[in-house]
């Protein structure tokens, strides 16, 4: 397992590289800094080194620029490992089914994630907009939709409450007594008025994704176009382009959280692999603050044993929920700070002795302070300079990979739409 280079350190006229050792990376990295200081570039350079070193990575990019940059630089011998997930490729939509599970354990995990994602999207502060009752209905409905050899997706959930034939066709596959009882006892006793009230609520949440063609064509396919366990097992290069300008903020967040949930589900299965067989995998999430669920936070503390190295960045630390700030300070082995605003400077300086608040306020562009995990221990803080964008673009390569991926992983839009129409009929 090769080290990669984060940046350079200049000390008393001598320049040395700042290496990041593989084993230390499973303790994760957090990076913060104002716009334009070079955060995305640091991740791009690190991810490119991982790719060159034949490691598996997933890069989640809210703008798409980092993905375009990487696509243009993928070395020849790794071209076939690239899986590009770009929702704006509407002619060949890839499938991403949150509710596709291979075993009961995975099913439970994904249903819990589904609920968590809805909270994050519609009621992050838990004000009661999504209450225990919606949660209860959603849990049972999701379990029911998944039942049977055909499986199902979240866009069929509303249909369960509208189409009795569909409900019965799914119920016959249910084994879980609690879910069965939900239908035979609870639903049987629920008044039509209450049902339609709840249905409205479901439609108002799911409608957003069902009525958007791009989202429906991605989320509604029963079979995801790529398998996250294979991504991990074969060192794939999963590039997720969530350019908000193209699909909208809520949709981008939904897809980002589903990708992370599916990746987590696959990572958790590694518990059954011998430790030696868990290949290192590196996850990069740029502007991660909108994609965080509770289970993702627990990954920060647990994923060490799964050989997953997580890299997170955003612009403002102090704006993250307190719980998230604590999880980062408590669990992340390597913290890198570029120039930040006053609040963040104060907060970070507490962790970065002997540096002061002013040190953070006065950092020139591309310069940072870092506490680096070295051999399992976090170092004292020291300064560094980031690397300029590595290597140059191979002309026309990005376009070629995009076309290849859309043919290899996407399905023609008319076929997808026909299939989904059938599921919803
Ligand atoms: N070390 C460096 N040397 C020279 N140029 C750099 C360096 N790091 C980044 N750049 C350039 O600076 C610009 C801004 O970098 P980048 O996009 O990485 O910033 P950012 O912190 O991610 O900003 P934002 O928060 O707005 O996304 C880019 O054009 C990038 O190529
Ligand atoms: Mg950036």
TrEMBL record:
SUPFAM superfamilies: P-loop containing nucleoside triphosphate hydrolases (SSF52540). It comes from the Bacteria. InterPro entries: P-loop_NTPase (IPR027417), T4SS_component (IPR051162). PANTHER family: AAA+ ATPASE DOMAIN-CONTAINING PROTEIN (PTHR30121:SF11), UNCHARACTERIZED PROTEIN YJGR-RELATED (PTHR30121). This is TraD/TraG TraM recognition site domain-containing protein. It comes from Candidatus Doudnabacteria bacterium RIFCSPHIGHO2_01_FULL_46_14. The lineage of its organism: Bacteria, Candidatus Doudnaibacteriota.
């Amino acid at each position: 397992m090769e080290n990669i280079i984060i940046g350079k350190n200049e000390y008393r006229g001598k320049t040395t590289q700042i290496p990041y050792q593989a084993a230390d990376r499973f303790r994760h990295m957090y990076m913060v800094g104002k716009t334009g200081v070079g955060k995305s570039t640091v991740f791009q350079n690190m991810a490119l080194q991982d790719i060159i070193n034949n490691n598996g990575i997933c890069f989640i990019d809210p703008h798409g620029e980092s993905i375009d940059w990487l696509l243009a630089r993928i070395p020849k011998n790794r071209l076939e490992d690239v899986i590009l997930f770009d929702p704006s490729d509407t002619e060949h939509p890839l499938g991403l089914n949150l509710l596709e599970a291979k075993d009961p354990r995975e099913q439970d995990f994904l249903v819990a994630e589904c609920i968590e994602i809805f909270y994050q999207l519609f009621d992050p502060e838990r004000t009661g907009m999504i209450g225990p009752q919606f949660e209860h209905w959603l849990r049972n409905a999701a379990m029911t939709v998944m039942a049977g050899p055909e499986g199902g997706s979240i866009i069929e959930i509303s249909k369960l409450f509208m189409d009795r034939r569909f409900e019965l066709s799914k119920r016959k596959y249910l084994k879980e007594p609690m879910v069965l009882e939900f239908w035979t006892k609870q639903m049987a006793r629920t008044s039509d008025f209450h049902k339609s009230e709840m249905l409205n609520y479901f439609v108002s949440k799911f409608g957003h994704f069902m009525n958007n063609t791009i989202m429906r064509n991605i989320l509604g396919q029963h079979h995801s176009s790529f398998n996250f366990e294979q991504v991990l097992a074969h060192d794939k290069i999963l590039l997720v382009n969530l350019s908000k300008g193209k699909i909208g903020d809520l949709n981008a967040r939904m897809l980002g959280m589903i990708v992370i949930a599916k990746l987590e589900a696959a990572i958790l299965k590694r518990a059954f692999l011998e430790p030696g067989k868990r290949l290192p995998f590196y996850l990069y999430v740029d502007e991660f603050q909108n994609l965080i669920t509770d289970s993702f936070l627990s990954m920060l503390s647990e994923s060490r044993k799964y050989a997953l190295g997580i890299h997170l960045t955003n612009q403002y630390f102090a704006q993250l929920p307190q719980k998230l700030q604590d999880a980062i300070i408590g669990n992340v082995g390597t913290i890198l700070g570029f120039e930040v605003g006053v609040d963040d400077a104060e907060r970070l300086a507490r962790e970065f002795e002997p540096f002061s608040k002013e040190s953070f306020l006065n950092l020139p562009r591309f310069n940072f302070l870092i506490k680096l995990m070295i051999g399992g221990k976090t170092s004292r803080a020291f300064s560094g300079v980031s690397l300029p964008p590595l290597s140059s673009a191979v002309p026309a390569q990005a376009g070629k990979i995009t076309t290849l991926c859309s043919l290899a992983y996407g399905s023609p839009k008319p076929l997808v739409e026909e299939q989904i129409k059938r599921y919803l009929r």
